[in-house]
């Protein structure tokens, strides 16, 4: 997809010529930039150089981050592109970015410091390639008042222009009254310095000015064009771009208009790399499409920019553009790897693109990491514009965090004249974790018309499900389930199993735990994430109904997620968090605002870790310091993908045809533990020479008929695969439902309340009737077989009738738990 604003400034015409920003660099002086965003991560200059000359900050933060979301959005409009989805949100998507978190700082000092840094980012006066080509400034300095005309910004802007760096400012959002240009954008050294951008509506064909866009004239001295502000206009209404954590969103403001101009400068600089900053600005200035009053005005300036018209303008002045198209040009888009490198081994892939006009038949791949360096020759056929994943050799490395560097050279045996997009670096956590492998044994028996069942590995001691994809990375989700039935293909085919674990960690609060309800803010828990995971739910305990607010911080103290939750009952509240948390150390989850929740006041022994050590809660946080007191957040339920990556299953098809048939019948479709939990299967298969049964609970058989006893309730898929007389595999599967009659404790056998639930089995609405002579309220909880709470309601004293909808639930076993004071009873409910 392509954002509307890119079209209205005529960026696609420049792309069609081959100008995409290659070799150019933007400095985003803003709130910082999220370097992990998929539309920005591959354009970060730090991959080619280092963080030191790619990130400016007065703080001790050594790597880019965004203290808000503003800078990430701005960067996306300048050069954003998600290469996996071709979601094009940026003007110059093959350019690179450097950034500074100046809006996270103290004002003028940060702003001037960033400008000075931009003239020598690598602190080496002998080099110039470290300098940006454009600095985007979507901010204003309120401390100046009307002193910007004679402020320190004036000589700094003169120096930047002399150094060849284009400085772009947003006009401000103080419109629509005249004279509302914000500081220091009133500066008018000449007609394009300062170069200030107004915001218009690029989604409306008439391109009206935005009501908030600041209006000229400048309050600095001058006349004619020198006095008029802004210089140009660009789309700034409802602009879609990046926001942190891989998301996208719409923002409005002159802050969104300025990066369209910065991106246009990068395209022109690629075409005319020998021109100075003033020449490039004048080209955009004089080639605008006039809007509003005829000629230059204090609303639109010269009008809306047209980058293609600016390109033609420069050509008409006699400037010759550099040819952007090469016959041989290989581009390294990314290095791909599983979340974790397991068994002390790196097993990377690279995604390459043929950016030239000739078919790529070979190039060199240079690989470097700790104790390993190698050059491999890739040979094949890659058409112009085509992309391909290439598997690199497995590399044995010691456990720890290591960087893998890959560079591509010599496309079709000649030097690549565009080497800046040929290299990438990826940091990986190398562990001794054992990789899960496919146990598919029938690859030699797949024939034309075969039906077969692929089974994900059996993993003991943890709940999990499996997503099946058609690609090792990204791809299409084909099916969800621990086994998948497929028909064979006429050629080799691969499927990829992604195991999703469901685990838990943290303290489970006991009824007698010592503690109190606290409205104190800023306390919580500290934890490590050894691989990316999702915090699905956690339990907090309340003595008041109302809102609570929770914040997640990374090790640097940045807020990376927050949520407000309305606790609608007294006692236990299971909160749906749905927080995706990347791998990292020293996260803190804190209560920040709202009514009290329960906190322990007893010291305990940390850590509390999930079963596979993906998450480890390492301490409590009290008054900003670590503590052995467990605070607030109980019974974490988490989920995560297998860190070692998806598991490949490759299907090789023989030319023989199936002649057999797999078939069977169950003795019953439903079993009950403990007395009626044995399944008898009668075989009805035809022309079968061998059998392979999978019972769905880790047990398998190889006899024609089966008698199997289930020991745990659940829904199981029974799979049969036979080998027929042609040595071909053919399969059938069917579901068996296993429920359990639960016994009650002595305390539960004589409850003081009565309850009836009907109809049971139920297909739609479950009618619940209760009679409760005590003063205690009755709480109803509907749980699935994994213990997750699906429904919750509190009924007051006396006889009550409650109707619970079951329409949206899948068929299976559920448990209605009834709490009254310290008494509990449970009713098994079957949804049909």
Please tell me about this protein's structure.
With 832 residues, the protein is mainly β. It has four domains: 4-316, Peptidase S8/S53 domain (Rossmann fold); 330-430, Immunoglobulins (Immunoglobulin-like, Sandwich), CATH 2.60.40; 443-461 and 481-498 and 652-740, Immunoglobulins (Immunoglobulin-like), CATH 2.60.40; 746-831, Sandwich (Immunoglobulin-like), CATH 2.60.40.3080. It contains nine helices and 53 strands. It has a seven-stranded parallel β-sheet with strand order 2-5-1-6-7-8-9, sandwiched between helices. Strands 22, 23, 25, 28, 31, 37 and 38 form a seven-stranded antiparallel β-sheet that branches. Strands 27, 29, 30, 32, 34, 35 and 36 form a seven-stranded antiparallel β-sheet that branches. A hairpin with a 7-residue loop joins β22 (463-469) and β23 (477-480). It is globular, with a radius of gyration of 32 Å.
Summarize this structure briefly.
This protein is mainly beta and 832 residues long. The chain is 10% helix and 39% strand. The protein has a 7-stranded parallel beta sheet with strand order 2-5-1-6-7-8-9, with helices on both faces. Strands 22, 23, 25, 28, 31, 37 and 38 form a 7-stranded antiparallel beta sheet that branches. Strands 27, 29, 30, 32, 34, 35 and 36 form a 7-stranded antiparallel beta sheet that branches.
